Amino acid sequence: MKPIDTTKPRRIIVALSIIFYIMEGVLLNPAIIWVVSPLIFIYIKLKEYGNKGLIHKVNAANGFLIGSSLILFLGHLAWVYDTEGKSTGSLIFAVIPIYSFIVGGIGYYFGRLESLRNNA
């Protein structure tokens, strides 16, 4: 199969990772790897699917990207605009990747369905 160009979504992933790193506001933050692990996962998968020319899986991966990015962004916004200023607010970063994988999986499913519906 002919390779599919996935540079645009992969650039979006890199940009989102940088934005999340800046939003956290910590210079040396090894936890960012855990927080953006859904984005790292889908970056690798997009590259793999694109090189193999699997259009259905590329579209499904884009669905994962939309779902997981939305949850990560909302989680970061909730942390940034924490009006009560509780010290436990940063615990959201311990669970937000798990939620992101779950919602990303739902996005993957819908992306795959949409791709199959359009290309059937």
Can you walk through the features of this model?
The protein has one domain (7-119). 77% of the residues lie in helices and 0% in strands. It contains five helices and no strands.
Write the layout of secondary structure elements.
Blueprint: H1 7-24, H2 32-35, H3 37-52, H4 55-80, H5 92-119
How would you concisely characterize the structure shown here?
The chain is an all-alpha fold and 120 residues long. It contains 5 helices and no strands.
Task: Provide key terms for this protein.
single chain; 120 residues; mainly alpha; 0% strand
Please state the structural category. mainly alpha
Can you summarize the main beta sheet? none
Give the overall silhouette.
elongated
What is the N-to-C succession of helices and strands?
HHHHH
Number of E-type strands: 0
Strand content: under 5%
Distance between the termini: 17 Å
Give the C-alpha Rg.
16 Å
How helix-rich are the residues, as a percent range? Answer: over 70%
Average pLDDT figure: 90
How many alpha or pi helices?
5
Number of domains: 1
Low-confidence stretches: none
